[in-house]
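Reproducibility note. Readers wishing to regenerate the assembly model reported in the main text can use the exact inputs given here. Chain order matters: entities are listed in the order in which they were concatenated for prediction.
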Amino acid sequence: MVEIDDTLVTRIATLARLSLSKDETHALAGDLRNVLKYAESLEGIDLEGVPPMSHATEGERFRPDVAVHELTRENALQNAPDQEGGLFRVPQVIG
Amino acid sequence: MSALTSMGMSELAAAIKSRKTSAVEVIDAHLARIVQNDDVIGAFLSRGDEAARAEAKTIDERIAKGEDPGPLAGIPIGIKDAIHAKGLPTTCGSKILKQFQPPYDATVTTRLRDAGAIVLGKLNMDEFAMGSSNENSAFKPVRNPWDTTRVPGGSSGGSAAAVSAGFAALTLGSDTGGSIRQPASFCGVVGLKPTYGRVSRYGLVAFASSLDQIGPLTRSCEDAALALSVMAGLDTHDATSSAHPIDDYGAALKKPTKGLRIGLPREFLKIGGDAGVMAEFEKTIAALKGDGAEIVDIELPNAPHAIATYYLVATAEASSNLARFDGVRYGLRSDSQASRGGLKEMYGETRDAGFGPEVKRRILLGTFVLSSGYYDAYYVRAQKVRTLIRRDFEKAFASCDVIATPTSPSTAFKLGEKTANPLEMYLADVFTVPANLVGIPGVSVPCGFSNGLPVGLQLVAPMFAESTLLRAGHAVERLMGVAAKQPAL
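Running the prediction on these inputs yields the following structure tokens for the assembly.
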């Protein structure tokens, strides 16, 4: 199985958008190693022809595609850390 | 404990409606108990005392005019802080949502309010429902009312402690891997995780969407039946909510034990629990047998794989669900120097500052199992094992109506006892996670005491068989006589 080291955890943290400190990264690498080592117990199970199960509901239920306006702009913005002119404001994206 | 803070829900509602007492008196009695004791217990993260008193007054006025405010008229309830109740913040026990004000009520909140229930406040929890001891709350720990040096369980620790301490007659929890049942067991109350889809999840902050389910924590199965009958049903706001007919849960409680087939997974039970827990478990099974239940040996050969399966599936879903907390639309935004460098930096800094260690651990694990190159080996493999676990339960239910195990291998442990080793904490979920993976309902019912601490019996039943579950649970209450016991605060 895969070797979990600080480099791999740093790569995963980047994917997860978590700016971890070096100490955090190192500690989390150890935790991940332990859990994934435990998860190796699934490796010996015969899964030939077994379909994956993604959820417990059977079939899908669709409702009519009707537009309803339940959230006002004011409500949608009420928790925003920064806003301007009725829009969410974010740090500069394009230089 | 004053009688008002220990009465069952239907009894309490009847007393309010017949004006033997008033909703205002009931709310005041509970608030007084909270004010006196919650500094120690730590169950509430926020309260709305004035709003609660005003609602109680309205209930009393409606009754005086001859109106029926509903089956839960004047009942004081508390809501886990992952479920929206307009007027109070939803923090999810996390710094990242510390200031969040929900713009709407969760469907369950609406249904309970419409039935006459009064929301007292929001209850403490492990951050984003990740934990088994409530020690992952970013704000404060919760203490077990039976022994304040011990944890209440988690993640719905505040919800269980509040019912146990007589702060509310009904609380809501959410259960992704045992988060209603395990704290119910530790605090000596009834905790019901309904079938996946039985209760709408609209307004519940998502942890693992294929496993999460909202359910009630109460003093008795009778109260759980009443709460479920109000909460259950189809909701257009939750596409996974079910149109399956809703049973008369109250009527089911009156059925005798005789004819009930209780499955015992003897091999799985060898994983075992503390001697005290197993002794109370065996005693309860013997009592059920004595009362006419048929005890059936069953096998769940893949159940021991449930923990590994769960921690791969649940973290994968969590890493996806928690991606929305990015400092843009709601919640904390980091103000650090680095976060001013650009959007990506702001995301990373905000999430590092806003999430606690357990949440980061699970986001990382989930991101890893979903990442290119590892997806098939971990995530898809776990989903396939999930199918095997479901097949085990389907096969077992051909020969029994409910399956019994202890809810947790142990009674409530000491604060700080298990925080150093995350994996050890995960392993304690062994008996509860299978029901979430399969989607079936489960209940924890108090069945005894070990060294003065409550022990819970877990029962699980086929999809939508909550009636059978509550019938069996009610029999346990009647036979073991421990459900009514309350801690001295």
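We highlight two features of this model. The longest helix of chain A spans residues 22-39. Strands of chain A lie at 83-84, 87-88.
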